[in-house]
Amino acid sequence: MESYIAYYRVSTEKQGRSGLGLAAQQRKIAEFINDKNTLLAEYCDIQSGRDDDRTQLHKALAMARREHAKLIIARLDRFSRRVSFIAQIMEQGIGLVCAEMPNASDFQLHIFAALAQEERRLISERTKAALAEAKRRGKTLGANGKFLAVENCRRADEFAKTFKLALPANYFTMSYSQIARRLNGDGLTTFRGRRFYAQTVKNYLKRL
Questions:
Q1: Model confidence pTM above 0.70
Q2: Number of domains in the chain
Q3: Residue 149 confidence (pLDDT) above 70
Q4: What mean pLDDT value characterizes the chain?
């Protein structure tokens, strides 16, 4: 039986008051804890994922050290948007568990965080480029659906390259459904933040 300190993060005060986002995180951690482990305390910060100076997280880490407990989070993207921040936490010698990927090793958490960080960078760059090009052409922003559809296709192509790094080494011997189950089990999502399905996997592999 393991002891855990839960940590949540929501981006805005409105999310904090309404429970939007927080409730989903709490539910995911509760499913992991069930009756096999002990949840000693819960901490929650209300701030952007870009801000790594978090009062409640520092309290959670201090208690985890004091109680020899592990820090549990619901999802990596709710924890931090930076690989360096996640690495810094791990280097403190406190066990980090992601409820969405309970069997992931520290190395795998680093890989998944790096993939998510790169995915966000690509999406941000492509979106800015698409808006800049639309503006240059004199299009009214918000009315350039066709142009953005083409840009979304390009972004999907970029993500497909990143997606390949997350594939199991023997993916070529697996069915599309088996690959989708593996990726979902590892907590990965499509570039739109959705679950993988057999057809999704097939589409990405075609892009490669």
A1: no
A2: 2
A3: no
A4: 78
